[in-house]
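Human:
Class, as today's exercise, you are to examine the entry below, and be ready to discuss the fold:
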Amino acid sequence: MSSRKGIVIKNKRKQRAIVAEHKRKVLDHKLKIRMEIIPKMRRTKQEWYLNSKKNLLDIRRKWAAQRMEIRLQIRAQKRSHREKIKD
């Protein structure tokens, strides 16, 4: 047991250095996440939101234009039928 304690004591500086390096890596990683990854994710999410909103508006406009064309065709058909009935 005493030899084991001796090994631990001898390697204490090395162990502290390893722990300190590990803590530094963890802090660097957290900083990287906070400063780089999260803003990228926010930008991506915002772009997706704006693009999807724009796409939905485009789809609505196209659909409304098609609906108007169809309604105009139906009105034209009704007019032609009325004219045929009158004649």
